[in-house]
Structures are given as structure tokens and as C-alpha cells.
């Protein structure tokens, strides 16, 4: 499958430019020329079956068991047939909460502190120095990393700016969305601050943003700001995705305001609450009450383990809290829940692989989910929160598939195998494989070593 892979040409960020950064993206961030797939033969499913998967028009039309021997029907192999032997077919992940405009800026920002306030200050100081092209370069690289690891749908929050062109982040991400239109569904939420006037928000939507976002919990009057953002969403006829209560101490009025306001919205209109860390610090009665309000209002919750484990709880040296909402409790209460990474290698989180497998692993160890539920949150749950149609190796579902060289889902989440083939709407958009090298042969071919005396 390596032959399917190539570095993207036009519009790609210069490798030299990015690699010059101390935290330059890994070379594995790449995409392929999308190629149609008609059939995947002999591929495994998480339930242990070995099947052929037939695809037409970007949709899975048949999943046919081929028997316990796992021998595929390769009588008529062709360029549109993938030999799936040794691979596991999974629903392709979705990233329901990214900040691609901030991604990969850690090396340039390096905040002196490590909590949310320090990260916000560091980003604001850095953001006045960046233009649309700089944001575009990092965002494109980050989006390609997501695709290479298997993610075929992304919702990114994008800052509006007080200086210069206030919409330069939105414009940069609209360019990324256009350039990667064949590889990934990209939703853009305008990250509205309380200092952003309404006309700036309207202009962001006109420039290409899909949703209204924001973080009212850090506004001077979080209740008033929550009402203002929902008023704007109703005026403009769009959905909302708000950062909700990304803290552990304090009241919880913003969540109630949010759920009260959107409870009467029509079904299907996007209403998402990201973070919700505070719910995890409430007692059992409070958690149940929050779950009931979220469920009745149809609000989808996005939990973001890697970033909130990094940012939250730093003031507590004893029994340090994890900063996550009670994920299993929300699920048990009927709430739609997805999971993502939030920030990747920026002032809010210096690490991260842009890989949903990493998020699933953290859900297992930090949110105490079982493997299947963890994987649900980064795939079907994330797609539900994003308002996307179902995907996966199921007849009638969109053929957004992640093929991983692994024996089962446990192996995927534990090992994060490198060998992956990514399909979006039935077309291969990325294929990667690990290679075995002979270190002595490699050194023998090094020009430096050959020239050494
Ligand atoms: Zn966020």
C-alpha cells in the first residue's frame, strides 16, 4: 500500500520550513491521491468475523462473511480491490473538537505556566504576530496528521482576532477545508470572545464558519455571554458549540443557561458542550441532574482527556483531580458523548499525536471506559455530536473506514499500530506502513560514513 502514498504537491507546506521548528511535525503527516475502492476482501471486524466489504457510491452496500479460515475471494482482484487480510476494519474516527489554528505552535509560544490562564495569555501574545499564511501552514499540517492517523471528519474552533484582520484564522481554515475537501469533512466553529462585536461574528459566518463557538465561562458575565451567543446563533440560523465550564471549582449556572436556551431547538440542530470539567467535580446528585438536563436539551458533550488532564487540577497536589466529566454517568443518563483531543502541541497542550487511538487509550485509563465504549466515543459518538451520518463497515453506512493491521480492537487501542489504510466515502485518502530497516545497511549508505577515513 505504500505505492498509494505520496507527499502532497501544490499547496503543501514546505517541509523545510516546518522541520526547522523545534517541534516540527513528523514526516508521517501526508495524504494520498484519493482512489476509489470497490471491495475490501478478507478483513476482520471487532466482533471476530472475517468479511468482504463491498462499496458503491461511497457507501457500504454489503458485508459478507467469508468463513473462519479468513481466505478472501481474490479470484478477480483489480486495482479497486484491497486485500484486507491481517487488517481490522473500523469506523473511521472523527475529531469533534480541535483548534487547528493554534496547533503545532508550542515551540513558538512556550508559556511560562501550565494552566488554562497561562495558556490563554501565551496564545494571545503569540497570535498578534501571526498572519493568515502562518495559521494556514500549521493548520494544514495538523489536519494532514489527523487524516494520516485515520480521522475523516474534524470540527475545529477558530479564534477571531482583535488586531489586524480579525477573520484571518477563519480564512486560513476555509482554505484548508477547500484544499482537503477530498480527504476530510471539516466543520468550522467561530471561537467568539466577549470582546468580539456581533458584526464580527456575522462576518465570520459569511466568510465560511459553520457554527458559533465561544467560551462564556471565562467571560466577565458568563450568563450574559451565553445568552448573547445563542441569540446570535438563532439570528443567523446556525448551531452552537460552546466551551462549557472548563474548570473544577465554582457554580454551574452556565450549563443550566445553555440547556434551558436550546431545549426548544428543533431536532438535528447542532448544540454541543465541550469540556464540562465541572460536572466531574460535582456530587452524584449534581452529576445526575446535569446529565438529565443535557439529555433533555439534546446537547452533545465532548470530553477532551489529553488537554484537560494536562491543564486541570494543577492546584491540587493531593488526590489530583482528572478534570474530566463523568463520562460513563453521562452515557448512562442518555447523553450523546464524543471525545477528542482539543489542543495538540500548542500552549494548551505540548504533546499529542493527532491520533484518535491516543484519545481512546486515555479514555480507558483516565475515564475508566471499556475498550468498545472508548472507541465508540471517538467514532460513532463523535459523529453523532457533529451531526454526521453514520459511517463504518455496516451496510448503508458511509464508507469512512480505518483499516488497521491488528487482531482486535484491544490491540489497536493498546498498540496504536502504524499500518493503517484510511478510506473516506469509499476512497483511500491515506495509507501508511511501518518498515523494517537494517541499521548497518543504512549506515553503510550514509555519505558521511562513506567519506569518513
Ligand atoms: Zn477547545
Automatic annotation (TrEMBL):
InterPro entries: Amidohydro-rel, Metal-dep_hydrolase_composite, Metal_Hydrolase, Metallo-hydrolase_Enzymes
Domain of life: Bacteria
SUPFAM superfamilies (alphabetical): Metallo-dependent hydrolases
Stretches the record annotates as Disordered: 1-34
Gene3D superfamilies: Metal-dependent hydrolases, Urease, subunit C, domain 1
Domain (Amidohydrolase-related): residue spans on this chain: 97-404
Any one GO molecular function term: hydrolase activity, acting on carbon-nitrogen (but not peptide) bonds, in cyclic amidines
Protein name (database record): Cytosine deaminase
Organism: Dietzia natronolimnaea
Amino acid at each position: 500500500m505504500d505505492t498509494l502514498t505520496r507527499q502532497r504537491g501544490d499547496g503543501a507546506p514546505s517541509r523545510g520550513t516546518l522541520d526547522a521548528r523545534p517541534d516540527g511535525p513528523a514526516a508521517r503527516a501526508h495524504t494520498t491521491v484519493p482512489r476509489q475502492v470497490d471491495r475490501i476482501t478478507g478483513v476482520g471486524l471487532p466482533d471476530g468475523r472475517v468479511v468482504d466489504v463491498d462499496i458503491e457510491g461511497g457507501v457500504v452496500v454489503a458485508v459478507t462473511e467469508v468463513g473462519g479460515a479468513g481466505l478472501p475471494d481474490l479470484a478477480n482482484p483489480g486495482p479497486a480491490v484491497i486485500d484486507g487480510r491481517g487488517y481490522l476494519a473500523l469506523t473511521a474516527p472523527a475529531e469533534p473538537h480541535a483548534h487547528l489554528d493554534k496547533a503545532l505552535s508550542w515551540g513558538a509560544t512556550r508559556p511560562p505556566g501550565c494552566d488554562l490562564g497561562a495558556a490563554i495569555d501565551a496564545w494571545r501574545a503569540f497570535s498578534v504576530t501571526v498572519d493568515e499564511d502562518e495559521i494556514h501552514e500549521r493548520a494544514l499540517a495538523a489536519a494532514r496528521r489527523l487524516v494520516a492517523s485515520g480521522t475523516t471528519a474534524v470540527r475545529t474552533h477558530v479564534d477571531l482576532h482583535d488586531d489586524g484582520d480579525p477573520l484571518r484564522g477563519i480564512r486560513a481554515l476555509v482554505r484548508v477545508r477547500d484544499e482537503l475537501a477530498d480527504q476530510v469533512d471539516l466543520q468550522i466553529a467561530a471561537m467568539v470572545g466577549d470582546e468580539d462585536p456581533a458584526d464580527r461574528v456575522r462576518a465570520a459566518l459569511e466568510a465560511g464558519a459553520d457554527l458559533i463557538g465561544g467560551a462564556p465561562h471565562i467571560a466577565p458575565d458568563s450568563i450574559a455571554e451565553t445568552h448573547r451567543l445563542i441569540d446570535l446563533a438563532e439570528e443567523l440560523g446556525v448551531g452552537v458549540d460552546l466551551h462549557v465550564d472548563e474548570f473544577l471549582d465554582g457554580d454551574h449556572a452556565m450549563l443550566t443557561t445553555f440547556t434551558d436556551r436550546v431545549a426548544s431547538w428543533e431536532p438535528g440542530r447542532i448544540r454541543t458542550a465541550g469540556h464540562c470539567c465541572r460536572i466531574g467535580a460535582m456530587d452524584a446528585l449534581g452529576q445526575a441532574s446535569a446529565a438529565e438536563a443535557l439529555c433533555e436539551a439534546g446537547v452533545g458533550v465532548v470530553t477532551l482527556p489529553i488537554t484537560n488532564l494536562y491543564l486541570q487540577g494543577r492546584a491540587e497536589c493531593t488526590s489530583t483531580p482528572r478534570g474530566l466529566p463523568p463520562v460513563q454517568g453521562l452515557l448512562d443518563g442518555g447523553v450523546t458523548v464524543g471525545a477528542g483531543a482539543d489542543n495538540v502541541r500548542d500552549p494548551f497542550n505540548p504533546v499529542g499525536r493527532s491520533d484518535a487511538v491516543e484519545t481512546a487509550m486515555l479514555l480507558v485509563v483516565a475515564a475508566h471506559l471499556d475498550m468498545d465504549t472508548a472507541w465508540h466515543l471517538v467514532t460513532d459518538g463523535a459523529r453523532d455530536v457533529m451531526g454526521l451520518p453514520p459511517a463504518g463497515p455496516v451496510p448503508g453506512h458511509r464508507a469512512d473506514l480505518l483499516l488497521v493491521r491488528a487482531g482486535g480492537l484491544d490491540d489497536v487501542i493498546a498498540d496504536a499500530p502504524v499500518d493503517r489504510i484510511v478510506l473516506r466515502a469509499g476512497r483511500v485518502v491515506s495509507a501508511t506502513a511501518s518498515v523494517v530497516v537494517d541499521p548497518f545497511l543504512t549506515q553503510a549508505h550514509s555519505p558521511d560514513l562513506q567519506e569518513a577515513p
